[in-house]
Design a protein that fits this description.
Elements lengths: L2 E8 L3 H9 L4 H4 L9 E3 L2 E6 L2 E7 L10 E4 L5 E4 L1 E6 L2 E9 L5 H28 L4
Antiparallel strand pairs: 1-8, 2-3, 3-4, 4-5, 5-6, 7-8
Helix pairs in contact: 1-3
Length: about 140
Amino acid sequence: MESRHVSRVISASPQTVYEVAANIYNLPKWASGLAHSEVTREGDTLWVDSPMGRVSVRFVERNEFGILDHDVTLPSGVTVTNPLRVIIHPNGSEIIFTVRQLDLSDDEFDRDTKTVGEDLDRLRELVEAATSSRPGI
């Protein structure tokens, strides 16, 4: 099984990136590989309509370390753990998502990796637009 780390540098503090990415109501704005529509919550579990069908998502507890790991339980019942980190970078912060091949074909793995990159591009745009309209955050 292969893994790929997909990352983007964002011109904002790690705390700001974390807050935007951790806000579940922002998921449909940037995470097209996960959420196509509004997020609903049942306790600690989130429900979203995704490209894979209706899935449940559980994020790790909010933390000061920039860890946004989350488990996605697919309609088949299989749970996939997705490592996601926000770290400090000389130009602000860097967000890193680990994509794992698991049982995907090489073409599917390439497509997933590309989708994650596009999602992180949208997150960068969302964060940078918010920080440019509110200087100092």
